[in-house]
Design a protein that fits this description.
Ribosomal protein S3 C-terminal domain, GMP Synthetase, Chain A, domain 3, 8 helices
């Protein structure tokens, strides 16, 4: 049987940059890796309602740069930047290093798999019908311009005694095509009956057609004319 691999891990280092960008020796590597996880966990817990898509971490000798991609940047920044200052102090106490926090707004949350997964989880926690919730997520994402989407929920759906897995898909989702911009999101909905896992795959087009004219020529069946050397 063919096993599915996470599209983000499959493309990391080839088409997608690493979420943690730093170098360390064997002695310090484990400590810094655990520190990264603590930073991400703290931020996602503190700003649970701000729609955090991902947290990138870059390290230099002097400081640690934490880059937060979120749908509601205003919640993280706060009035006159008060929340960012508090967050910076909290992270410096947690890591005992100089921290610099940067924020980026996710302009189209409808095509971000992590934010779509969080939205589905919120609806399930409000006891909404899982089938209606999945269908609404598919329609909203496809209308926003995505090439394809798949949503999968696992657990005691609808309060059933036996846990099961349900999934639905729209459009195309080439998981093994490296040039395809397929992204993955996962979260859990905490309900009275137990946790429900929510997985979302979204195809946002092609890396090459967006970044180079050669990709557009190839798509149109043309060969780009390059100057002879």
């Amino acid at each position: 049987m063919g096993q599915k691999v996470r599209p983000t891990g499959f493309r990391t280092g080839i088409m997608v940059p690493w979420l943690s960008q730093w170098y360390a020796g064997k002695k310090d590597f484990g400590e810094l890796l655990v520190e990264d996880q603590k930073i991400r966990k703290f931020i996602k817990k503190k700003f649970a309602g701000s729609g955090i898509s991902k947290v990138r971490i870059e390290r230099t000798r002097e400081k640690v740069v934490v880059i937060i991609h979120a749908a509601k940047v205003g919640v993280i920044i706060g009035k006159k930047g008060q929340e960012v200052e508090k967050l910076t102090k909290n992270l410096e106490e947690l890591c005992h290093r100089h921290i610099e926090v940067k924020t980026f707004e996710v302009t189209k949350p409808e095509v971000d798999p992590q934010l779509v997964a969080q939205d589905v989880a919120e609806q399930l926690q409000k006891r909404a019908s899982f089938r209606r919730t999945i269908k609404r997520a598919l329609d909203t994402t496809m209308e926003a311009g995505a090439k394809g989407i798949r949503v999968q929920v696992s657990g005691r759906l609808g309060g059933a005694e036996m846990a099961r897995t349900e999934s639905s898909m729209a459009g195309s989702l080439p998981l093994s095509t490296l040039r395809a911009k397929v992204e993955f999101g996962f979260t859990e909905a905490v309900t009275a009956q137990g946790n429900i896992g929510v997985k979302v795959w979204i195809n946002n087009g092609d890396f090459l057609t967006e970044e180079s004219s050669d990709g557009n020529d190839a798509k149109a069946g043309k060969v780009s004319k390059k100057p002879a050397r």
